[in-house]
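To whoever picks this up:

The parser on our side crashed when reading a file containing two proteins. I've narrowed it down to the boundary between the first structure block and the second sequence. Both blocks are reproduced below exactly, byte for byte. First block:
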Amino acid sequence: MGDQAGPEPTVSVQRDLRLLEAAGAHPAGAPAEQLAREAELPLGMAEGHLRALAEDGYLSALDDGAFALADRGPSPGAGVGAGTWTQSIRPLLTSLRDDLSAAAYLTLYDEGEIRVLQIVDSPRTPRVDLWVGFEDAGHATALGKSVLGGLDEEARANYLSRHPLADLTSHTITRREELLRELESPPMAPLARDREEYRRGTTCVAVRVYCGDQVGSLGISFRSDRMYRTSEVRAQLLSSALRVTRRLTIPE
């Protein structure tokens, strides 16, 4: 595609946490220059993160240009509270669905399985018919391949040892060597794709997200005969993935 991939969402959120910790030491607020210095980040990078944290409600931008933890501010590293992620994540998936006119999905790798946490669709953007559970179709979906690409070698081998590469369509990858080559190839970063590998007539694109040290994926599905600008899809997915990772890692 010619454009460079940005940092993994987990790297960006680690920078967010450092800035939140720095801001937490200054109840009355501190300027960007000071927070950048205390978080050991370049000023330009820190300013971008501070603006994003303010937009998402984690920080308050004060009139004098300083930043302070918002009144409802999260505790860095607090983890996902019961019921919290549903309320905070769904609007992000809804926005992604509306921006790209495609059903949006969120998965998480949990206890050795790829689990679907949320699907946001509509009559105009219907979800794919889940005729085979995602737990058994990681090899055939962009969402699953995105997760598998983020696992370490041992975890990936464990998953593949328990899940045969079933032939779901004529496009499905059924040879382990071929699947591993795709998972490990540079084009997998940051986008994973399946074109009619899970279901005929449906294409899916996904990127990785994180909940602490758990890997997941955020993706969209659409009819294969629809045309999308790859750069637009990539930009929207990466931006949404960062915000989803931020919400999962540093919940409200």
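<<boundary where parser fails>>
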Amino acid sequence: MKRLATVALTALAPISWGSTYAVATELLPPDRPLFTGVMRALPAGLLLTALARTLPKGAWWWKSAVLGTLNIGAFFPLLFLSAYRLPGGVAAVLGAAGPLFVVGLAAVLLGERASLRTVLAAVVGAFGVSMVVLTAEARLDLVGVVAGVVSSASMGAGTVMTKRWGRPEGVGPLAMTGWQLTAGGLFIIPVAALVEGAPPALDGKALLGYGYMMLINTGIAYWLWFRGIGQLTATSVTLLGPLSPLTAAVIGWAALGQALSPVQLVGMAIAFGATVAGQLAVARTPKTFSSTEQINQNISMDLTDGRVRR
């Protein structure tokens, strides 16, 4: 039951991220994705760090910078570039392929043995998402495809390295989330200034949208995501990813008046079923480890939400 509750809470993160498109199109200034990335990450990171009242020490300054860059700083701009260069459906499918990166990296760096059922769940989940979001008019763009693949790889590497490094003794997921969001937001600032120029003027609608993005869509969502990484396997967490495009499709239908065809409904059922099957497959798969230290590290992170000794 404890694992089920952790999975359910962690799933709220990709579900929240599924609202990003609707909020961005309905409330935020157009054509400012990098500024939006800064507004999502940096204020949330500073707020969570202040609430945690803990700053990195020693090696955790550069580790937080690396994790923040992989999970936020590089991921956001590459994701936005992919979304601008490709039809939304193609970009979403590339994102849904992210679990395959994590399965491979987790096997190499964490000793997490992926079963055939786990790999099939990742593939079938991506296929289901493609049925929901792809259209016959979709066209490929090389730069967009590369950006989408690298963004998925960046987030996948960040997920695995977050699991591998754990947390310093006495530091909880709130502080770790704050450090990474702050580092990621700082990384995006010069890119946003170079590409987009000065920040746009913000009206009340935009402030409401950015407030939601900062607090719910990023602050709380990433806290739940990194908390889940600390308690579950990296593969288990990343297999929840397809919930994001599925949520986006549901919100588009319920709030934006977008129709859902029978093929899309079947795709949603397939992707959701693959997500559930993937969690069951991971729960039944025994882990293998490369060293005694890694055994202790993974067991402590999977079974506790408290301190992880490093």
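After patching the parser it read the second block fine. Confidence is low (pLDDT under 50) at residues 288-310. The chain has 15 helices and no strands.
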